[in-house]
Specification:
single chain; 87 residues; mainly alpha; transmembrane; membrane; transmembrane helix
Length: 87
């Protein structure tokens, strides 16, 4: 088990001086900013996920559409039953 540095876990010399030290204010600032930062990070992660889903749909469907247009253009001809030359 690791040991903490002896100076970091030192109790405050006086409970009266504790509100004047930086440690409780840093902890309160962290706790107060957590909902804002957490909400912003959630929004960024959700936007990235939705953007990835949309782009993956384009990645899959666009080649399929192009391929199906190519196949239809190569195989379908309105004058095929009469054996005429297609324009």
């Amino acid at each position: 088990m690791s040991r903490a540095a002896p100076g970091r876990l030192r109790p405050a010399a006086s409970l009266v001086r504790l509100p004047l030290s930086a440690a409780p204010w840093l902890a309160a600032g962290y706790l107060a900013s957590y909902p804002l930062v957490g909400g912003a990070l959630f929004a960024v992660a959700t936007a990235a996920f939705v953007g990835g889903v949309v782009l993956s749909q384009f990645t899959v469907t666009l080649p399929l559409i192009i391929g199906s247009v190519w196949v239809i253009a190569r195989t379908w001809c309105p004058c095929r039953p009469c054996s005429a030359v297609c324009p």
